[in-house]
Amino acid sequence: MIGKGLNTPDEKLAERTVEAVRYNIRHYLILRNATQSDLAAALHVTKGAISQILSGSTCLKLRHACLIAQALGISLSDLTDPKYLLKDQEDTDRMLGKRQER
Fold it and tell me: How far apart are CA 98 and CA 65, in angstroms?
């Protein structure tokens, strides 16, 4: 804990959360059979802006995350939930592990 009752921020947790948001945007676009262009149109931004958010080349702002969640019809909590990302990583690790055993 640091002064004034504040905790020391966990940079790794913050980065994992941003990674989960990027993953979940893709995940929910697929579930809705929508494209980056569809999301861009809903948000009145360019497809390039969505691409930059998803690639991590631009910083994802909380305002953008809120608007994206609304456009996808999900909560901000759903957007930040790492469960789909973790499940995909586990599946990938399991598949790679099986390949390495052969």
Answer: 37
- In terms of Cα–Cα distance, which of 44, 41, 39 is closest to 54? 39
pTM equals 0.83
Give CA–CA dist 14/18, Å, rounded.
Answer: 6
Q: Along the 102 residues of the chain, how does pLDDT read in single tens digits?
A: 566 778 888 899 989 999 999 999 999 999 999 999 999 999 999 999 999 999 999 999 999 999 999 999 999 999 999 999 999 999 988 888 865 554
Residue with tokens 């809903």: 42
Q: Are 69 and 76 contacting, i.e. CB atoms less than 8 angstroms apart?
A: yes
Cβ neighbourhood burial of 50 (10 Å; 0-12, 13-18, 19+): buried
